[in-house]
Amino acid sequence: METMTPAPRHFSKAPIIEAIIDIQIAGAPADLLDALEHAEMAAGYRQVGTIGAMIGKLEFKEENPVASAHGSRLGYRFQSADDKYVVQVRTNGFTVSRLSPYDGWETFIEEAQSNWAHYLRTVESSSTVSPQFSVRYINKLHMPPGSEISSYLRTYPEISPELPQVMMNSFMRVELDLGSDLPGATLILQQFYTQSDQPGQVAMILDNEIRVPYIVPISDPGLWATIQRTRALKNRYFRGCITPLMEESID
Q1: Contacts of 185 (CB under 8 A, 6+ apart)
Q2: Which of 4, 85, 141, 249 is the most buried (most CB within 10 A)?
Q3: What percentage of the chain reaches a pLDDT higher than 90?
Q4: CA–CA distance, 249 with 246 (Å, rounded to integer)
């Protein structure tokens, strides 16, 4: 049975609260952290903080476990002058986030590539590769309280009729192989209730991430060409998760 692909559609009340492009890197030069401290991003961006990781360790000394932990710095966080974009530059990758209100893929991708160019100049290593990238869209959807979830969402946890039917909370995560849509790639779909910011409504997060293994030198323009290919997919998968009634509510 052939699956119909929804036609492209612009929603005037797009529920996107954050759009993210993340590019992992491997084989970075040893002194990259020092270089990142003095990195400059696109015009108007300012450094606003550091990015770290906590590493735990468990040792057994004379049969007694001894736990320890220490932090390490991975990179730095930048923010645009209008506070709509956040850029992370790290020794293991690069991330750009567009916060609400989202104004379209073209603006988002242009801003991401502009900052990526600055990141490339900082890394300055032909041996550095990208083993994976991801494109992620986090949506906040609203529904009337007590409504049938199936009236608004096409993908949701299904409760056995032998169980109580009033769902107070839920968390769902599924990982789907994209097959011929984008060979080797995975769609990670997460869905959970959250606090509503609209009176008389309940809210749910719909978090769709397309994760793509793609091993190329980070300067390869094919990396961004492949990222561009995910645009149609992320739109199709979003519409595949919601019903016409939900579409009406955000149109």
Answers
A1: 177, 178, 210, 211, 212, 213
A2: 85
A3: 77
A4: 5
